[in-house]
Amino acid sequence: MTDLPKGWSIPDQDHVRLNDITCLSDNWYHLYRVSFDLKRSDGTWQTQEREAYDRGNGAGILLYNRGDRTVILTRQFRLPSFVNGNEDGMLIEVPAGLLDDRDPASAVIAEVEEETGYKIGKPSLVFDLFMSPGSVTERLHLFVAEVTRDHQEGEGGGLEEEGEDIHVLEIPFADLVPMMADGRIRDAKTVILIQHALLTGLFD
Questions:
Q1: What is the pLDDT of residues 25-34, one digit of tens each?
Q2: N or C: lower Cβ tally within 10 Å for the chain?
Q3: Neighbours of 8 (CB within 10 A)
């Protein structure tokens, strides 16, 4: 087997054989071309090539204030959405970020403080998902945590040295479904966590 990129884990399987991995770009994250043999359902083997974008794994969290009946979200410019039909490039999202060698809970606690100014305790993990498995390796760990106004100890806004200019939003529970329906909230991880909250009664 060829040498694996850092962080990759490929268990032995009888339906896939890895042939070669070529790094096409490491400018920001890493883009790889992978050649492999896949055993089809009829028993024949087929050689395939795919590209996989490796940006590391991430974590996101829905902060909800049951007493005030609000959620804490963020709004920031996202270039990929801007070039693909999002008119002003701004997206409303749950606080989130890459793990950067941290465990998911520690990473999301740090991201919450950087982005929103809220300091939280141990969050509750609700999902471990592949968001775009056809092309991106990222696993996204999604959490929820209940907060009050006492948890807010700073202004947030993100890190200027990382190019972040994040606006903190406090949105009423009652506005969330209309905002998803009309496209004001269209970030997938955020929709997933809001739907989870609605289905499991976190807002009740």
A1: 999 899 999 9
A2: C
A3: 14
